[in-house]
Amino acid sequence: MPNLPLEGIRVLDFSTLLPGPFASLYLQEAGAEVIKVERPGEGDAMRMWPGDFEVLNKGKASIALDLKDPDAIQRLTPLIQKADVLIEQFRPGTMDRLGLGYEQVRQIRKDIIYCSINGYGSEGPFAQLPGHDMTYAANAGVLGLTTGAAGDPVVPWAMLSDIAGGSYPAVINILLALRNRDRNGEGAHIEIPLFDGLLAIMPWIFGARVAEGRWPRANDNPNIGSSPRYRLYRTSDGRYLAVCNPEEKFWRNFCNLIQLPADMAGSSDTGVVTEAVAERIAARSAHEWEQIFYGQDLCCAIVKTLEEAANSPLLRSRNLLQEGPNGSSPAMPLALSPDFRRCAVAPAPGLGANNRLLDHYSQYSSMEKR
Predict the structure, then answer these.
(1) What is the pLDDT of residues 120-130, one digit of tens each?
(2) In the structure, how many helices (H) and strands (E) does the chain have?
(3) What is 222-318's CATH topology?
(4) Residue 133 falls in the annotated catalytic set
(5) Model confidence, pTM
């Protein structure tokens, strides 16, 4: 296998749960060495959910170290000296109190790329407020944009704040900082507030604000179901059809196939059109509609269960759920080009399985000083 893009890059990951570990998983699979620094006895809180921990931490190393121990910084110093990237996910100020804040770490490794993932930034009235995925979405005003039939907000199907607001921006900014360091030799302190990143994935909200002069409300924007061209319709057997045809050519093809009259297809009365489309979709089963739409130039899909999706020809053809070596669990499907990703990944580490690294780098540092 050719060299991977991040071979030779070493990452110290102090983060837990999802945002930081998912970001460091990307770095690990692109070739970096990732060393988790975990609390003795408990470790990463995600260890309470072994399956989740396994897929998020494959191929990483683990050292168990109490950061409050008097000799913790001394023991970590040789590792920090050899690290390129440090990721932390504590509340702002915690790493400073532990003696491991950016300015303190920079005294050990001046060109370190130091990434702080937090909820609301390091300053301001919300800086110390704890949170999880839904609370960031609630405070951002976006949790209630899509509601159920009774008008109640629904729990999102994905951890949007954690992943889209935290993990992905962290990876992007770490790579940019490494590129910048290649050019000028300088490190950087990157701050990734999940709240900020969540807003950054919804350009249509700000587009609507510019175009209409107001903020979108629940279900009143074409992107969240106000248009008959972009919404869910119930089939005769109680399944649902996802219709996503905002473009005129797709919409016309769709209307022809469901036999919606041309004058109705072109009507601006969204309520009437939606009712007419719903009536036609409700007349056939999910299987019948799949047969009708298969191979046609439009965007429609039956809402599948996870089991149906996993066994579908689509996922099999994309080779996204490969079994790991020797029957081990599969690696997470990541948005990495195959050329930039490890072919085989080791299992997730046991807590403290790599504590020998503390002594290894300490000895290595001592030899360099002689």
Answers:
(1) 999 989 889 88
(2) 16, 9
(3) formyl-coa transferase, domain 3 (3.30.1540)
(4) no
(5) 0.89
